[in-house]
Fold this sequence. Notes:
- By secondary structure, the protein is an alpha+beta fold.
- 64% of the residues lie in helices and 13% in strands.
- The chain contains 19 helices and eight strands.
- Strands 1, 2, 3, 4, 5, 6, 7 and 8 form an eight-stranded mixed β-sheet that branches.
- Helix 2 (28-61) runs antiparallel to helix 7 and helix 11 crosses helix 12.
- The longest helix is centred in the middle third of the chain and has 45 residues, at 235-279.
Amino acid sequence: MLSESNAEVVLRRRPFGSRLLGPADQSPRMLRFRVQTLLTIFSIGTNVIGAVVVFVLALFVLPGPDSSHDLVVMRSIAIPAYFLLALVVGCVWSTRLGLRTTSWVLEDRPATRREQIATLQLPLRLTLIEVFLWLLATVTFSLLTLALQPESVLRVLVTTFDGGFVTCAASYLLTEFALRPIAARALAYQAPPRRLLAAGLKARTVFFWAVGSGVPVVGLMLTAVLALVQGDVTATRLSVIILALGTVVLVCGWILTGLSARSVVAPVRSVRNALTVIADGDLDVRIPVFDGTELGSLQAGFNQMAAGLRERERLRELFGRYVGPSVVREALSSDTLGGEERFVAVLFVDLTGSTELAATRPPGEVVALLNRFFALVVDEVDAAGGFVNKFAGDAVLAVFGAPTELPDAAGSALQAGRALARRLRDELPEATAGIGVTAGIVVAGTIGDVRRYEYTVIGDPVNEAARLTELAKVAPGRLIASMAAVNEADPAEATHWQPSESVTVRGRFKPTHLAIPTDEAS
C-alpha cells in the first residue's frame, strides 16, 4: 500500500482548512449540526467578549464625570437586560435565517443559482443582524445617557460604536469560516457567479485594516478629546487610559488581522497542497471551492486545470493504446516525427488458415481468438522493448529500434520471436502462426496528410519479414529469421540461432540467408 504524502493527508483530513469543519463527505445532517453549533458559539462568544470590553472601557477606563444614581441604575439593569434580550433575539433570528437559506443542504440536492447566491451572501446577512443590534444598543444607551447625564453621552457613544464595529467584523470572519463546508457544496455543482459575492482581496484588506487599526485609533483620539474636555484628568489616570486603550487596539488589530489572513491563506493553501499532490503524479484530485472572492475563482480554476490534465492523460493513454506509448512520447516531444533513416529489426506474425477459421467458426469465437493471439504478441513485443506498429487483419507488424532506439534491436526482435513462438505453441494450440524476423535500414516516420498522420516504417526489411512469415508457416518451428538479423544481434542471443539455406523470397531479387533457432534444429 502506497503511503500518503503530507499534502494528501491535509486535503483528506482538512479539506476546508480546519479539523473543526469536518470531512468533505460528511452527511447533510451532520454538516448542518456542525455548522450551526459553530455559528452559535462564535456569535455568542464574540458578542459577549465585545460587550464586556465595551462595558469595562465605558465604566472604568475612559475619562468622564462620576456617574449619577440614575445612570448607575441604567448600567445595572438596562444594559444587562438589553444584552440578554439581544443575545436571544440575535440567536433566534440568525438561526432561522440560516436554516431557511441552507434548507437545500438537508434535502441533499444541488443548490439552485438563487440558493447558491443566497448561501454565499449568508455571512454578510448574519453579520448585518449583529450590526443592527449593536447600532440599536448605541442609539438606545446614548439617548438614555443624554437624558440622565448629558456630559457622559460621548463616552457611551464612542465605546459602544467602536466596540460593536470591531465585534461585528470579527464575527463576520468567524461566520465565513464556519460556513465554508456549506459554501463548498453550493459551489460544487455550479460555477461561481461571475460577479464577486464578497469583498475582493483589495477591499477586504483595506476594510479590515480600518476596522482592526483605524477604528480603535479613532477611538483613542476621541478619548484624548474627552480628556481635554474634562480638563481635570491626572497624569496617572491618563497613563492608565492610554495603556488600556493601547492594549485593546493591539489585541483587536492582532485578532482581526489574524482572522483576515487565515481567510486568505486557507484557499491558497488548499491549492498549494493539491498542486503538491499533482506534482507527485496523482491527477485524481479536486479541492472544495468555498470562497466567494477571487480566491474562489483560483480554487475553481485549479479544479478546471486538474480536470484538463486528467482528460489529457486519459487521451494520452487512449492514444497510446492505438499507436503505442513510444509514438505518443515522440509526438508530444516534437511537432513532427520526421522521416529519418533508422536501423531497425522487424518482426512479422501472421495466423495460418485465418480464412478457414472465419468460415468454420462463429464471428464471436474468431474475434476472441484473435484477441488472445494479439495479447500474446503485444506481451512479448513490449517485454523486449519493441513497438507494435499495426494490426493488419490477422497479422501483426512489430518494430524494434523505432521510434525509440534500442541498443540491440536485432537481438531484442530475435528474443521476442523465440518467446512468442513458444507461447503460441503452449497457450494457443488451436491456431498456428508464422513468425518472420529480419533487420536492416528503413525510413521511419509519419505518412499521410496534415489532417491525419500515421507512424510507420517503410523499406525492404518490412517486405522481407512478411515473406519470411510465409515460409515460417510451413517450417517445423513456425519461426524463421534472416542471418542479417542474427549477425547484428548480441552474441548472447546469436548463439540461439544457426544458419540454414538461402532462399529468394517472392518480390525480392537478392537471396535471403535464413536462420532457424538451434533448439528447432536439434
